[in-house]
Write a structure and sequence with these properties.
InterPro entries: MetalloPept_cat_dom_sf (IPR024079). With 328 residues, the chain is α/β, with parallel strands linked by helices. The chain is 34% helix and 15% strand. It has one domain. The strands form 3 sheets. A 7-stranded mixed beta sheet has the order 1-3-4-5-7-6-11, with helices on both faces. Strands 2-9 form a two-stranded antiparallel sheet. A two-stranded parallel ribbon has the order 8-10. The termini are far apart.
């Protein structure tokens, strides 16, 4: 009888670990070597880097609607933003970048760092937005909106971009979005498949992974991207932990990320963009500007018929994953 009760207790705890709003598993360690993560990604994602061609929009009276939404949410003035078209050699369709005059990331830095990211990951970002740090909590460095728009508030690290694009993969790239009771959910990280993977592991990769399922997935994307691309990623000198066996503690989470988005997180110098989020509409910076003064609006529609065009969430229905809590 005691053995049966113990079995029930263990089973209940296993269910509890995946029935919460966030994982209840402990982190692999209380800290990890983030410098090694950034150095490894910076060195070995170099092969996927495409030199950006950054051009400012000639028409200063209009901008992408996604940039407007981000600026209004932060109570920033449209007139303080510059809009750029950013092109890379691995995609015939450009991205669009809105940079505030006092932004933490310059247009050059953001475009260069973004270009290091594999094209399969970049494809799920619509607009890049650079704003000044305006939060009381100065550790917030970036956030993602499920329209496909990514906003940074500081001079962004490469690991931060990978984390935020992990959110893009979670919300927009992965289609198995059903909970264990068959309900539709907004992100892959809230599905039975992902939460069962966490349930099979003894740990989650970082303390920040314990904040929510969404952050748990994005943190695992960082580790999987590092593990897949950096030689000797699990070694003492190169990896985030001195003990390579730490990786075994969240192996099922790593395996599930690689099984579902492995093609996206691995660089390929010959790769071209196969998928792209549909671009924003173009809207006036000032709603009171007469139509005759708006000039010719850029046509941002994706024209390459070989590209699979994906729709992000509407601004009304979008989820905001509110801010990396360190330069992450």
């Amino acid at each position: 009888m005691t053995r049966f009760i113990s079995f029930l207790a263990v089973s209940a705890l296993a269910l509890l670990a995946t029935a919460q709003d966030a994982p209840t598993k402990p982190a692999v360690d209380k800290s990890y070597n983030r410098n090694n993560i950034n150095q490894g990604l910076g060195k070995h994602l170099e092969g996927t880097r495409q030199e950006p061609n950054v051009t400012e929009w000639e028409n200063k009276a209009v901008w992408p609607e996604g940039c407007r939404v981000e600026a209004e949410a932060a109570e920033l003035k449209a007139e303080d933003f510059r809009v750029y078209e950013v092109r890379y050699g691995d995609c015939d369709e450009p991205w669009h970048m809105c940079v505030h005059d006092e932004a933490g990331s310059s247009k050059e830095h953001l475009a260069e760092q973004f270009g290091r990211i594999p094209i399969g990951m970049r494809a799920y970002v619509r607009n890049l937005v650079a704003q000044p740090q305006h939060f009381e909590k100065k550790t917030i460095t970036a956030h993602f909106r499920s329209t496909g728009d990514m906003t940074t508030f500081v001079k962004v690290e490469l690991a931060t971009l990978v984390h935020e694009i992990g959110h893009a993969l979670d919300f927009l790239a992965l289609k198995d979005k059903m909970t264990r009771d068959g309900k539709k959910v907004s992100s892959f990280s809230k599905t039975k498949l992902w939460q069962d993977a966490v349930g099979k592991d003894s740990n989650v990769p970082t303390e920040y992974s314990r904040k929510s399922w969404v952050e748990n997935f994005a943190e695992t994307v960082i580790m999987a991207t590092f593990d897949q691309n950096v030689p000797d990623a699990r070694s003492k000198d190169v990896g985030p932990w001195p003990d390579s066996q730490k990786w075994d503690l969240f192996e099922e989470q790593l395996r599930t990320v690689v099984a579902n988005v492995g093609g996206e997180i691995t660089p390929d110098n010959e790769a071209k963009c196969k998928n792209r989020l549909q671009n924003s509409k173009v809207v006036p910076k000032n709603a009171r500007t007469p139509k005759r003064e708006l000039g010719l609006k850029p046509d941002l529609r994706i024209r390459d018929v070989s590209i699979n065009v994906i729709e992000g969430d509407s601004a009304k229905d979008a989820v905001v994953v509110d801010g990396c809590d360190h330069n992450h």
